[in-house]
Design brief:
Length: 243
């Protein structure tokens, strides 16, 4: 993530984009009650990051609702509290994986795949799934709620070197360098998981493509991210911040 010459403008834009990603997730039915969290690290190596507050539905979150915290969970700016599991998971993932953006959700179809023996999406099935080839980490061991530093660090280490994690019996994490790109991945991850679950529900044998073809498709999608930016800007027009 590049450093803006105007730190205040950069912080304002990050708040706007994070709030938009949360509203979009609610719009696309990727949220769950008032649980789960999206966060983005400030681009100054301070280990501070922005995160959604405790107790607000994602559909009602605006830029002013976003909370700024340090690596220890101390609220530095914002009028809301932060939920404990958010700090244990997000602080660890930011620190250990070095990803700027961390999106954690219990999306229906992706979470359904974490309940299977395979634990994750097959990236050789649908075109949407192929974009994730080589990017998926699987944390197959569920250890309960992440209510301590050790559990957050265990999840983060399981994700090392990848930007998508399927957490067994739990949910998923999608990470990246830019909010727009990470949200695009989150959206298409759920679509790919939905297609796989629907295909499996037919009871008919699945028909994956060969890994070489899937790798070529993955490179094509990852090599051109304008579509991700255009999608996010469309969401900005469709889902304005609440007044």
């Amino acid at each position: 993530m590049s450093v803006d010459r105007d730190p205040l403008a950069s912080l304002t834009r990050l708040r706007e984009d994070l709030a938009l990603a949360l509203r979009a997730a609610a719009h696309h039915e990727l949220s769950e009650g008032v649980c789960n969290h999206f966060s983005v690290a400030l681009p100054d190596e301070s280990q501070r990051f922005l995160i959604n507050p405790r107790g607000l539905h994602w559909s009602e979150i605006g830029p002013d609702d976003i909370v700024l915290v340090d690596a220890h969970g101390t609220v530095l700016a914002g009028r809301h509290r932060v939920e404990p599991t958010a700090m244990y998971i997000h602080a660890a993932v930011h620190r250990i994986t070095r990803h700027a953006v961390v999106l954690h959700a219990h999306m229906p179809y992706a979470t359904a795949l974490t309940l299977t023996c395979d634990r994750a999406l097959d990236p050789t099935l649908s075109q949407n799934a192929m974009r994730f080839l080589g990017r998926i980490a699987i944390d197959a061991e569920y250890h309960g709620l992440a209510l301590d530093v050790a559990e957050g660090e265990r999840i983060a280490r399981a994700m090392w070197g990848k930007d998508v994690a399927f957490l067994g019996n739990h949910g998923i994490i999608v990470a990246g360098a830019h909010i727009a790109h990470a949200y695009d991945d989150l959206y298409y991850l759920e679509r790919a998981c939905m297609h796989q679950v629907l295909a499996q529900s037919t009871g008919r044998p699945l028909a994956p493509v060969n890994v070489e073809l899937a790798a070529r498709v993955a490179a094509q999608i990852q090599g051109e991210r304008e579509q991700s930016d255009l999608f996010f800007e469309a969401l900005r027009r469709l889902l304005p911040a609440p007044r």
